[in-house]
Amino acid sequence: MQIRAPGRVPFFRMSATSLRMFFIVSLALTVGACTMTETQQRTGSGAAIGAAAGALIGGRSGAAWGAAVGAGGGYLVDQQKKRESSEAENQRLREENYRLRQQTQ
């Protein structure tokens, strides 16, 4: 059995230290997401997806811009989902209110 010295991992093209840090940060974000609100989860996942896309396109500065844009997008998606949920609940309550009024007449 041959043991490799720390260096570059050929498949990922990142150093072993960078790969370890990636896994540690991923684990920390996963565990931390357990106590997050839906807004925080959507904003965080938008930032992560944006950072990954930005890193693929433009390196480190692209990752920073991608994270910022992704976080904003995640927040907007969250607000839209909340609005849709609120409108659906309001419609359900209006229909129930209408049925109750019909029963009392």
Measured distance between first and last alpha carbons: 85 Å
The chain-level mean pLDDT equals: 81
Q: Which percent band covers the strand fraction? A: under 5%
DSSP, total strands: 2
DSSP summary: helix tally: 2
**What is the spatial order of strands in the main beta sheet?**
1-2
- Poorly predicted segments: none
Structural domains: how many: 2
Net shape: elongated
Give the oligomeric state: single chain
Largest sheet: 2 strands, antiparallel
Class by SSE composition: mainly alpha
**How much helix is in the residues?**
over 70%
Instruction: Please give the radius of gyration in angstroms.
Output: 23 Å
Order of helices and strands: EEHH
How is this fold's topology laid out?
Layout (H helix, E strand, L loop, with lengths): L7 E2 L4 E2 H17 L5 H67 L1
Antiparallel strand pairs: 1-2
Gist of the model:
The protein has 105 residues and is mostly helical. Helices cover 80% and strands 4% of the residues.
Describe the structure.
This protein has 2 domains: 1-35, no CATH class; 38-104. 80% of the residues lie in helices and 4% in strands. It has 2 helices and 2 strands. The chain has helices at residues 16-32, 38-104; strands at 8-9, 14-15. The protein has a two-stranded antiparallel sheet with strand order 1-2. The longest helix has 67 residues, at 38-104. 11% of the residues are buried.
Key attributes of the depicted protein:
mainly alpha, two-stranded antiparallel sheet, 80% helix
